[in-house]
Amino acid sequence: MAVNEMMKTLVRTGPGTPTGNLLRRYWVPILLSSEIVEPDGAQVRVQILGEKLLAFRDSEGRAGLISEFCSHRGVSLYFGRNEDGGIRCSYHGLKFDIRGKCVDVPQAPQMCEKMSIKGYPCVERAGIVWAYMGPPDKQPELPGVEWANLPASHVFVSKRLQECNFMQAMEGGIDTSHVSFVHKFEVDDDPFHQGTKANEYIKKDGNVTFEVERHEGGLTLFGRRMGEPDSYYWRVTQFMFPWFTLIPPFGDHALGGHVWVPIDDEHCWAWSINFHPTKPLSGEEMQHLQDGKGVHCEYEPGADVPGGTFRPKQNKDNDYLIDRVAQKERRSFSGVLGFAAQDASLQESMGPIQDHDAEKLLPSDRAIVMARRMLYEAAENLEQGLEPPALAAASQAVRSAGVLLPRDQKPQEWAKEHLRDATTQPVYTL
Ligand code: FES
Ligand SMILES: [Fe+2]
């Protein structure tokens, strides 16, 4: 199958599409827990995988995700009342619980059973409400990614709107060769990257070569640079099925990663995560994270409120505040400042859905092609009734790394021992 043909399938994620069916077999990050803080507080609209949904917290504090629209005559339940264990439609008073079950039809109680709407089970991990949107009898184990299983003090998550298809956003997380260009000068100034041996090696050797290994849970990418006279410096990136990526670490700074979740086929949530496996984030780190440093961002005024757009301050309407002087003075490679805006500016510039018929791939795109192929095969296999890969939580419990290895040592061998089931291991970083 030609790559551009596979992409026609992979960019469509609405209900009933092969890729949509595949993604619905995993737990889906939906919104920040902080967007629905209060029991019986204001419900918020969310769109995920092309479905218009409503998130809320019921009287018992349980998160719920249901269809936005009332089964009676299609009114938006956004205008309903969240009270006494469910949302009551403001039009004629039908009421729905966190699973979309209709619990009251004032005019015709005998009709109650027939009036339920769509509702998805939710769990909360790492300050995110996750939902399972697939067939009820196929619900997998809870998310196994390391950061989703840490105490709240150890992890920081943020989300930002990205105005393009999730595949072209996620491919930026897999395509580590772009780091030597657009992010080149950012690593010196950013508080989550500066002052590390990693930066020295990265800068000393721009001629990075990649090896990619496919395994049950995803892909491991090995980027090789010159290390010490007897060693290579390997930066190891992880892609975990179906939408997680882990960034190789910089010194003792917090580890980082992303999740790329379709809102619809032309927008996605770029979730950004920082975490320490064994200690809380410091007050200073927390401050930087909240200020939008590192892989996080600042927002348009009023965008980062419950149910808000979470649209970054730097966006396509203002050319991401490109600064040509900063570009000339080599403070920014492209003139756009900040990791998130740098990635978004380039990925959104490809159009809401990249024209894959026109792309001409290079050898350095091997990892992307492998990821596309893996996802495509899984989507096609699922259509044939074959179960998707990496449903077990353990297959997601990998880690990224930065490590010096003797020149004759295969990084794949090292990774097998140290990076799978890695959450019991020390962090390998320089
Ligand atoms: S439309 Fe909701 S109760 Fe009538
Ligand atoms: Fe990037």
**Any low-confidence stretches, pLDDT <50, length ≥5?**
none
- Tally of DSSP β-strands: 19
The shape is: globular
Cα-atom radius of gyration:
22 Å
Bound molecules: FE2/S2 (inorganic) cluster, fe (ii) ion
Q: Can you give the helix content as a percent range?
A: 10-25%
Mean pLDDT: 96
Number of helices: 10
Summarize the structure.
The chain is of the alpha+beta class. About 20% of the residues lie in helices and about 25% in strands.
Could you explain the architecture of this structure?
This protein is of the alpha+beta class. It is about 20% helix and about 25% strand. It has 10 helices and 19 strands. The protein has helices at about 5-10, 20-25, 165-175, 185-190, 195-205, 285-290, 325-330, 340-350, 365-385, 410-420, and strands spanning about 25-30, 45-50, 50-55, 65, 80, 85-90, 95, 100-105, 120, 120-125, 130, 155-160, 210-215, 220-225, 230-240, 245, 255-265, 265-275, 400-405. Strands 12, 13, 14, 15, 16, 17, 18 and 19 form an 8-stranded antiparallel beta sheet that branches. Strands 2-3-4-9 form a 4-stranded antiparallel beta sheet, with no helix packed on it. The structure holds FE2/S2 (inorganic) cluster and fe (ii) ion.
